[in-house]
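Run log, item B.
One chain of 178 residues. Sequence copied directly from the ordering sheet:
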Amino acid sequence: MYVLLRHRSPASLIGLAQKLLADSEYLARGAAFLNAPADQPAFSRMESSLLWAFAGMPRLEIPVRNAGRVFQLRIYESPSVKTGQKKIEMFNEAGEIAIFRKVGLNPVFFGECLVGARMPNLTYMLAFESEEQQRANWKRFGGDPDWQKLRAIPEYADKLILSGITSIDLRPTEYSQI
């Protein structure tokens, strides 16, 4: 299960656990999870990442709202902080986010990982009306002339700025707000 929490400032993250544990509704609705015994834990382990929104997409967007929607979470690892910044530049200034939008790769967010696993990395999420749309729009992206031109620029070559890509397909829960 993945949970996406948006914070307007780093200060809102500090003390979040204490704030939640003081909320009676949170405690009541989450009792089974929060009070799970050690011999039957509610989860194995948690992993968290703190992401900083890209300048090219500073706010979370909810581009697709239909019942059959799917999400794709992608994590791009870089061999160094410098090359990671080059990939962020490619999305922001060089126009890769704009190309995504043009071909129907509907962004939810883009973020630079400040704290988390497998750093340096950036993470982004896309939304699609269906798995079929996801496949078709990635195909459109691969053949897009603007993408072909951008990826041909030597300083943006994947082999120089990426050392790993993880792609995770997700389905929202019935209570998902995105």
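Observations after the first pass:
- The chain has nine helices and five strands.
- The two ends are 14 Å apart (CA to CA).
Flagged for discussion on Thursday.
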